[in-house]
Amino acid sequence: MLGLRLHGATDARLDDLPEPEVRPGTVKIRIACAGICGSDLSLYETAPIPVDWPHPLVGETGPHVLGHEFSGYVTEVGDGVDDVPVGALVAVQPSLADGTCPACRRGQTNLCEQSGFLGVNGGGGGFAEYVVVSEHSVFVLPAGFTPELGALIEPLSVALHAVRRSGISAGETALVVGGGPIGLGLLLCLRTHGVARVIVSEVSPSRRELAAALGADAIDPRDVDPVAYAREVTAGQGADASFDAAGVGTATFGPCLEGLRKGGTTVAVAMYHEAVDIDPGTLMLTEKTCTGSFAYTRDDFQSVIDAIADGRIDPMPLVTSRIRLGEVLEQGIDLLRGEGRDTEVKILVTPH
Ligand SMILES: [Zn+2]
């Protein structure tokens, strides 16, 4: 089968690989759809995980197949798997956790001491034709789901977890800096959560247009100061919660913190390109909370599936292109690193 493996920085290759074999407690999935994530671009650019390092929960060295947002059809199940029928359309929660460390025992499996991801640390990935995963990573999707919806559950789970981390309530105002897949996913989750106003600050005109169509106050930070705007629409108070979904550095985190009301919470939900200076004295005076949000738990995944199933969230407007596995480098990763950064949101990949 074909699989896109990361051999080193800016060296990903479509390799001919043996099909993975099902083992007890696992299911074999014919991949139907996989999304390209901003973190795939970072991995591609820097290859931060040594190819010869076996992740302790996976136990295999690289090069590893990329792609951690995916869905597919079950073709075979291993011994002991009773709850996943052959033929079912499934989504895969790619995050790995040992289940035994203190964080896992607290229920914070996303903070596991041995945290890892399928499609990053080995164990197969979405940019391939088949994958074999633990039955516990699989969600059998309800009737009405398509493979494309299945591939969008993962990024929406990132967004939902961040919304939960913010503590924002229905009727309140949110500021989202960055209108990429996570920023727009935050918008969808915040609207579903009953948040009255969501301000999205984004430089790309097409992403701004999409944010506006999805109900945001979409502003261009080069024309409209996000901090001034957030205060203006809240009678001078500032947003109840804010989210940095861009991670540029002070340029994006600064407005998130400044645009908050006293006692509000800002959530870092991006990989940062540079460090940010914070004056703790400001936090003391205002009781603002700065926190982070990392990935998701099984409960976040299930909540997103439920919200899509009953129509509270429709993520399909985030899909801007559909390509084949053979095109994933040029029409996917390279495009998103170049001009596609301004014109694309989510690119979905199908094997054939
Ligand atoms: Zn753990």
TrEMBL record:
<feature type="domain" description="Alcohol dehydrogenase-like C-terminal">
    <location>
        <begin position="181"/>
        <end position="309"/>
    </location>
</feature>
<dbReference type="Pfam" id="PF00107">
    <property type="entry name" value="ADH_zinc_N"/>
</dbReference>
<dbReference type="InterPro" id="IPR050129">
    <property type="entry name" value="Zn_alcohol_dh"/>
</dbReference>
<feature type="domain" description="Alcohol dehydrogenase-like N-terminal">
    <location>
        <begin position="24"/>
        <end position="142"/>
    </location>
</feature>
<dbReference type="InterPro" id="IPR013149">
    <property type="entry name" value="ADH-like_C"/>
</dbReference>
<keyword id="KW-0479">Metal-binding</keyword>
<dbReference type="InterPro" id="IPR013154">
    <property type="entry name" value="ADH-like_N"/>
</dbReference>
<dbReference type="InterPro" id="IPR036291">
    <property type="entry name" value="NAD(P)-bd_dom_sf"/>
</dbReference>
<comment type="similarity">
    <text>Belongs to the zinc-containing alcohol dehydrogenase family.</text>
</comment>
<keyword id="KW-0862">Zinc</keyword>
<dbReference type="Pfam" id="PF08240">
    <property type="entry name" value="ADH_N"/>
</dbReference>
<protein>
    <submittedName>
        <fullName>2,3-butanediol dehydrogenase</fullName>
    </submittedName>
</protein>
<dbReference type="InterPro" id="IPR011032">
    <property type="entry name" value="GroES-like_sf"/>
</dbReference>
<dbReference type="InterPro" id="IPR002328">
    <property type="entry name" value="ADH_Zn_CS"/>
</dbReference>
<keyword id="KW-0560">Oxidoreductase</keyword>
